[in-house]
Amino acid sequence: MTLTVTDLAIARGGVPVLEGLSFALQPGKALILRGPNGIGKTTLLRTLTGLQPPLAGQITGAEDQIAYASHSDGLKPTLTVVENLTFWASVFGTYEIQPALDAYALNDLSDRHAGNLSAGQKRRLGLARMLVTGRPIWMLDEPTVSLDRNAVQMFADAVRTHLGQGGSALIATHIDLGLDGEVLDVGPNKAKPKPIDDFDGGFL
Amino acid sequence: MSIAAKANALWEYANPRKFLATSERVMPFFWVSSLACIVVGLVWGFFFTPDDYKQGSTVKIIYLHVPAALMAINCWLMMLATSLVWLVRRHHVSALAARAAAPVGIVMTLIALATGAIWGQPMWGTWWAWDPRLTSFLILFLFYLGYVALWEAIEDPDTAADLTSVLCLVGSVFAILSRYAVNFWNQGLHQGASVMRAAAVTGADTEEKVSNIYFYPLLLCIIGFVLLFIALVLYRTGTEIRARRVKALLARERVNG
Amino acid sequence: MIALLLRDLKLAFRAGGGFGLGLAFFLIVTVLVPFSVGPQSSLLSTIAPGVLWLGALLACLLSLDRLLALDWEDGSLDLLATAPLPLESVVTIKALAHWLTTGLPLVLAAPFLGVLLNLPVPGFFWLVVSLLIGTPAMSVIGTFGAALTVGLKRGGLLLSLLVLPLYVPTLIFGAEVARRGATGMETQTPLLMLAGITAATIALLPFASAAVLRINLR
Which residues cross the membrane (chain C) (predicted)? Predict the structure, then answer.
């Protein structure tokens, strides 16, 4: 399933941040999302995921295809690693969590409460969640925060495997993951202010 | 002009600039006429109608009580209508009009409650009775408070407009439910006494039972309150539109600064 | 759906889940009532149905601000919104979990607290019946309030301000059933009204809650 974005404009808190954005994300491909802080990368990912409506433009091929990893991992501190993963697996109707545990070396931690994990271990668990969703398109927002070099490698391998199985990924990151993905720099798409004498424009 | 074209012409006023221009033109008319109606109505009512044979001069508080109570309810209905327009057609002016009307509605409710208490003291010998009507207005007051508090609590203006609109819709249903519940509750409690009390209240409270001498000045006061309400809401909506514009300009300044 | 329900129940029973807080609050409020109004058993037995209903309502209110806020803070709500589960089901399940962990224990505890307040013997049955029918509505209405205020810091007080007026019809009819039952009057009309309100809120309000939640998530 190809995710196609045509002439997209998005807003954060009612203020337009990006406009005129067009790209396609084909199966087996990764796109690395780049741009200065505050440009609207998170807003773009949330819009593509369907959490917020776009100001203008079309998004096709996104319906029920996307798994989203935000800054927070959606973990419950009083549940164990396995319980956390099992929950998300059954919400997405997949039920198979062993590959996810293997991919992020979580087997030794499986009975630990998520609240007792280190920041990096939590992040690994959060990323392992992407594997149990069974969704083909991954939206990853700064996925490598608080990961050590070893864990970054696990993540890169997991993405590579995912791409190899016909999945795709849109990754907002500033580090080099060693993936052969194209770079999507949204810097040039920064929304330009409307003319100031447009009274209705003053509402947006 | 066809009906559809007329309807389209009406929506043009949802344009903030057009709304401001038009409201500024018509507002003086509403201010002057409302003031005239209320002054004439009150003077007529207070000084040129006889005292009631049973209630004495206390009956004359009706000229403030009834119009305020009517507007307290109509204000909520107006907010309901404008909230629906916002949810369906996304006209910012509509949402802002609802926001602008709420404090006016609160004041009207308070006037109705206060005048009711002042009237109740000589009539029933108590400032407050848990009469169904009074109780309903108290509950309405609580709904207004929640609505305004929600507007104040949310920073993003569109989110605030959406959430308050849904609250207004849901609140309307529950307000009607509460009205019936309260009716049932008080009758259920004091079956014997409430008939007398309800008659005493409703007897003076509905236009049908008010004789003609009182009715015409009362009607004038009601018209005056309606016009006053329109003037206040137009005025306050204008303020909200400007405040909103300033906020938007500041936000843009921050982003592009 | 079952997974979500089981998770919420598990979370409530684990350490720090807050299960039992509502019950303890209900107990304390009931104990404080005789201290404030005096120990005359005739007075207590008159006000017992109303006091117990109000206590249950406040105990219910107490746990509402955790209902969605925790899932909001740790990002679960974002993820649930992108899951195959419709948000309407999510809020319904959340309300059900809230009722099972807060409402139902209150219903079961109410008769014991009724003893403390000299509740007349015929009143026990009607108290339990009215609470059993009324508390689900309180959970569903509370979920709507929680969805409205989920993105706000210090939304707890605002939540009470928004939810309490919506509780008025349920409280009136529910307490009326309990009060009438305690004095041996017929209870059919208020009971039907109470059941009607509960059924209607369960059927309709989740749509409003989900709509409001979508607005808050964007």
Answer: 12-37, 43-64, 96-117, 123-150, 157-178, 190-213
